[in-house]
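User: Hi! I'm working on a homework problem where we have to compare a predicted structure to a textbook description. Could you give me the structure for the chain below?
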Amino acid sequence: MKLQKNGGIPLNQPVKPGRTDWKEKYAPLIFISPHLFFFIIFLAYPTLYGIYISFHSWNFFTDATFVGLQNYANILWVTDSLFFDYFWAAFRATLIFVILSVPFLVIIPLFLAIGINTRPFGHNFFRALFYAPSLLSVVTVVLIWIWMLDTNAGLVNYYLAYLGLDAIPWLTRAPWVWISLVLMTIWWTIGTNMILFLAGLGEIPDQLYEAAKIDGANKIQQFFHVTLPGLKGPMAFVVIMTTLASFNVMAQPQLATGGGPGYETRVLILYIYEVGFTGGNPRAGLAAAMSVILGMILLSISLIQFKLMTREK
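Assistant: Happy to help. Predicted structure tokens:
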């Protein structure tokens, strides 16, 4: 009887289905099961439960009461509702932060990455220097900047007074509060985007730059015709993720300005937190509806950005 070389099974003996290929069928499921478990417990279930809660009136202490679309109405089209005014005021504050921060959080890391990618003297030191703040917690970052920017006892105003200049209310008046929030966010997060751009720059073949030099392209022309097209994928990822992160800002204004002056820096996530978890009558259903609306806005913005940045010319 002739045998196969690798299995010792006779060639004319049929193999029972399911006996030899069960590992191929179930091994992938075994490997992804830990991630699938945490995905369901910490993402899928909370998301679905949040959508369910958004159709109810609930304050954590009593039974949830179904109210249909009333929570969404108070946010979206009942203009005489205080929640309508406060929600869109908070959205405006969030949008201001996004517009002020995202361009710097993309452009500065990009040029830092280009400079470090040329491998100047001490480039590893500077790469570690710019990345180090991203390892700190947001509380640590905000406390450092409060110590520096405090109006009365801050390090920055101390040196301004030494130069004969007036103290600047960095954390108590507009537009200085926005400048402060953007500065601390840039210092904290540019390192991550810089590393992503460095990885993308490493994937651009040197032959493209050599060909551009042969064709007479200068450094600026090489940047626009070689570097930027080569970073198309990383650029799309960085812009989308940075935009999402900026829309989800909360800790910086909460810790540094308390949402002030007035409600100037009360961003949307901070307002949702206040509605859902603070006060004598928390409104979990209304906060959940606000979260769902914010999620839909972010999904729409991400899709638009992805389409615009990945379409072929």
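For your comparison, note the following. The longest strand covers residues 56-57. The chain has one domain: 85-310. Good luck with the assignment!
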